[in-house]
Design a protein that fits this description.
By secondary structure, this protein is an alpha/beta fold. It contains ten helices and eleven strands. The structure holds NADPH dihydro-nicotinamide-adenine-dinucleotide phosphate. NADPH dihydro-nicotinamide-adenine-dinucleotide phosphate (NDP) binds next to helix 10.
Amino acid sequence: MAARIIDGKAFAEGLRGRVADHVARLAADHGLVPGLAVVLVGEDPASEVYVRNKGRQTREAGMLSVEHKLPADTSEAALLALIAELNADARIHGILVQLPLPGHIRSDLVIEAIDPAKDVDGFTIANVGRLATGQKAMVPCTPLGCLLMLRAELGTLSGRDAVVVGRSNIVGKPMAQLLLGESCTVTVAHSRTRDLAGVVGRADIVVAAVGRPQMIPGGWIKPGATVIDVGINRIPAPEKGAGKTRLVGDVDFASAVEVAGAITPVPGGVGPMTIACLLANTVTACCRANGLPEPEGLSA
Ligand code: NDP
């Protein structure tokens, strides 16, 4: 029987709706407007599109959106001075520095300069440490989106066998921490893993975050497992015409959909959740900064 398709677009829409409702309540009850500042250095076209989308969705949710577009030759010192300004700005509850930064700027230094309470990407060492020690953290947006979808799909995750394929700092490792926090039995696989097929085949939950098109075939998946495909890979699509391409995930969707219990498609799965979770994190940061209870269902 074919798997249920987890509709990330619809899920993200629902999440943005809950964010907007909470933003309206914060304004009505407390006169508060959550504010998100996005900093873009240079002119990477993909980053520009992403930043534009973030700005639009932030405003649509009723929040304050501040964009700082800096030239590619901005000095590290000037960027750090801007971060310090945003840290001190009471209107701003979330700060996101769009990566990658130009080569002459040390990304780790810039990320660490962000006040952890405003670190809505969850990349500072303070937030990574909080997540790893089970304390309240700002959680990276993509794994947070995966967790919210898994909870909605499966209810309690406790006791389930989960495998995360990929161990990056932005997806794989925080995803593994979140699943551990849900009391899953977690295996983290990577490029040196022996018998990846066997490891994947034991899992009730598979999160694929590798960046290799369709590398996980349906034959590896345990029947009925829930599959979250984070990968976004562009491959040639000659069937659409000469020079055309299409997006695929790290999982071979056509074969996996026949075996899994539920699966996210690419595109339209995890991708749309990432910006929605950024908005959710900004609302969470605003509530924490003002000593208010956190909204249900927006955080880990
Ligand atoms: P990275 O390149 O940082 O990490 C990839 C991971 O995959 C590494 O840990 C690597 O292992 C592992 N890996 C590579 N080859 C293999 C293999 N053959 N078998 C098992 N593991 C392997 O990628 P990211 O985590 O940043 O991103 C992963 C994917 O997710 C990409 O396609 C990216 O585009 C997508 N993505 C999507 C987002 C969204 O919003 N939907 C957001 C962020 C990322 P090792 O550590 O040993 O090298």
